[in-house]
Amino acid sequence: MIKRFLVFFVFLFITKLSNACVCDVPNIFLEFYASKYVFYGEIISKTYPKDSLTYTFTFKIEKHFKDGDRPENLTFTWPSEPKYRDKVYSDCDYEVNIGDKLLVFAQNKNGKLNFGLNCSNSSKGLSLRSPESLKNAPRFKVLNYHLNFDYYFFNQTKPITNIDSIMTPFKSNKYSNIKEGVIIMFDVDTNGLVSKSNIWVTNGFELNKIDSLVGTFDIINKEYRLPENNLEKDALDISKKIKKWQIMRFKQGGMAVNSRQYLMFSVDKNEQIQYKQFFYLVN
Description:
Helix content: 10-25%
Structural class: mainly beta
Order of helices and strands: EEEEHEEEEEEHEHEEEEHEE
Strand content: 25-35%
Number of helices: 4
Number of domains: 2
Largest sheet: 5 strands, antiparallel
């Protein structure tokens, strides 16, 4: 799925430094879909237990953005500020106080309703794009897309088909003077069945414009070009024999989704074909 012609496109990358948090904010439509509550509210209370290692705070909710149960107040518990835990403050830490107004995407995590302000569309205040995105989010139909793995939402999957067995007849082939590998793009349905496999191209791909108001698109998986060498030809032949993949599901609720998967085929030091699962960086 592509958003605004650039990528909600495959994979996540998180870098943790000693005193910094760097991560990508997830796609707002997917986070909306995965959340039990999406709301805007003001913190009206904040209390600490005797050991001060945590604090509990309560929202008075001004506006709910999702249909369903709409409580007037919601309460959450977070680790307390670093000063109470003998910890040096870092960019990974965040806190809230009475009077703060927040946009919250709350999900059930480890059996408890919670949210965070890092790696999330939850934020203090409303960003410029949030109101329009939240207005359109209920229109987002998740099963209309082929979704790339994102650690925030989905379980990581791999092929069930025994690729090593498929590759055995190709191991006697030599791939001399081939420096570049090739990426094969797979469409996998909600039953884990592979419906399409073609060479991935970095530009010139076509988009299926699913909903212009929401602003989301899906890359069309088709034959954009023919194989240009023996490695690409054999990689494509191998890929066409891969029929089954593990089902990708939302971590919250376990709903199966159509997924977009990738394998990279390249040449090892013995000039034989090899493969690995390939992931893109989220932009």
